Structures are given as structure tokens and as C-alpha cells.
Amino acid sequence: MRPTSLPISAALAASLLTVFASVAPAQPASEFPFELEMTLDAPPKPGSKRIPSIEIDDKGQARLELWCKGGSGQFSVAGNTVIFVPGTIDARACPPDRAQADDALVAALSAATTWARQGDTVTFSGGETLRFRLNTN
């Protein structure tokens, strides 16, 4: 080995480390947001101020507040895969359009197979893509 090989190799390794460190996503942004409330990225329905939200505890238990209904469910998260199984959904006195929107949202969550997080946005994909915003202060 030539005497200059080691400094060149060290310089190359340092350069590569710097490049990869700058393009790697920040670790906290890639973690699933357990214990944080997420609000659906959608406008309220006409005549209402409600926007659906989900809060998932560290055991996967979910509390859902939908367009009109509310309830629970169970999330299972492994890597970027996700499974949602709806639990009890309260049949509140909902107008038909909101009840239908609630059912469609629960079905879309149930069809989700993957999730991704970028900053304060969490996306569930696999069926209809759903985008939620983390409620952070």
C-alpha cells in the first residue's frame, strides 16, 4: 500500500459519511406518532366544524372522532406496514351524508397497508390515500 492511500481512503470515507448523513431522514420523523392526535387533512363538511381525528396509544389502541360518529379500533404497526381493525363505532344521530363519510373513512383506514411520515404529516396508503396532520404545539 502506498503511504498516500490511507489519507485518501480516510478523506473519501469522511466525504461519504458527510453526504449520507445529510440525505438521511431525521430519525424522529420516521417513527410512528403513538400518543399524538392526528387530524385528517380535509376541510369540514358543510354545516359542521368537525374534522376527523385519531389518537393511537403505544399499545395500538385507537380513539376515533369521525365526521359525526366516534369509536375505537386497533392499529398494528411494524416498519412501514400498518393494519387497522375497527372496534366499536358509536351510531350517533348523524345526517346520512356524514354517516356515509364516516363509514367510508373507516373502510379506507381498514384498507391501508402502509404508512409514511414526513414532518408533521402522516400518510396511510394501500387503498384510498389518507393524509393526517399531527396536532403539535
UniProtKB/TrEMBL annotation:
Secretion signal, residue range per the UniProt entry: 1-26
Keyword Signal included in the entry's annotation: yes
Membrane spanning residue stretches: none
Source superkingdom: Bacteria
Alphabetical keyword list: Signal
Gene3D superfamilies cross-referenced by the UniProt entry: 2.40.128.270
Family matches, as InterPro entries: DUF306_Meta_HslJ (IPR005184), HslJ-like_sf (IPR038670)
Pfam families per record: META
DUF306 domain location: 48-132
Protein name: META domain-containing protein
Lineage: Bacteria, Pseudomonadati, Pseudomonadota, Alphaproteobacteria, Hyphomicrobiales
